[in-house]
Amino acid sequence: MKSPRRSEDISLVDRLLADYVNGPGINDAARCPLPSRENTAKVCDLILTLLFPGYFSSGAVTGAELPAFTKARLAALTTALRKYVQGTLAFVAIREGHSCDSVDAKARELTNEVIADLPMVRALVMTDVEAAFTSDPAASDRATVILSYPCIEALGVQRFAHRLYQRGVPIFPRMLTEVAHSRTGIDMHPGAQIDESFFIDHGTGVVIGETSRIGKHCVLYQGVGLVAWNPLAKDEHGELKRGASNKRHPDLEDHVTIYAGATILGGDTVIGHHSVIGGSVWLTHSVEPYSVVTIKDPELNIRKRKGAK
Hints:
The protein is 42% helix and 10% strand. By secondary structure, it is of the alpha/beta class. The chain has 2 domains: 31-185, serine acetyltransferase, domain 1 (Orthogonal Bundle), CATH 1.10.3130; 192-232 and 245-296, 3 Solenoid (UDP N-Acetylglucosamine Acyltransferase, domain 1). Helix 3 runs antiparallel to helix 4 (103-116) and helix 7 packs antiparallel against helix 8 (172-184). The N and C termini lie far apart (72 Å).
């Protein structure tokens, strides 16, 4: 017996298929597919597992197993990266009307370079762990920082993705940091240049834009935004200015602390070293080193609730 909704189902399929033609429709596995979000998340897991064995992996790791464990995870990451870097390079080449002939060799070269950067990435993230431990009295030990502080996961992924971004790999670096964003609430563009010993306390709602530069030993609290002042700036042809060549986001020099809810805006804005920006500040211009920027206390109206004794 036929389902009474069969004709409706066929009609709906046809309508969807017709709409896919308008694009973007299918991430076509028969052509040059981009990595899926699920596979991108698996790459994030491999990165974090190699940075901190046993902390982010589902299975237990012993010291005796560590060489084989590391070798296997490294091989898996290399294979996945080559595939996805190749896919994104080919996608962009086709989109721009270029040949894909050299994409495979280029993907292999870029992947090998980024994989070789893993020890340097780990060294940087270890400075972030140390910064969290020394800055936060709630951190009982460094293992707790790695296991439970969202900034370590977000920075581990961002610092690796930044190496891909620096080498001109399209699309995939942003996909990696967006996985970390969805997991941690910390939104860091892979283009942001972040020096050593960076601590994001709590982290939820932090946004760091593509062209921001952050110096050594900086601390941000939750809800801080390093964002563009005029994100819709256009060129002489009326097109949006895109990418790293359009400096849109502020810079922090060394030893800057920014408290919760502050928003720093603009590509020309530089926060001088050893400065402190208070909570809820809205700042669109540079400040000199050793500055303290706060807003005036709001006028509070405090009254008794009805029924209070």
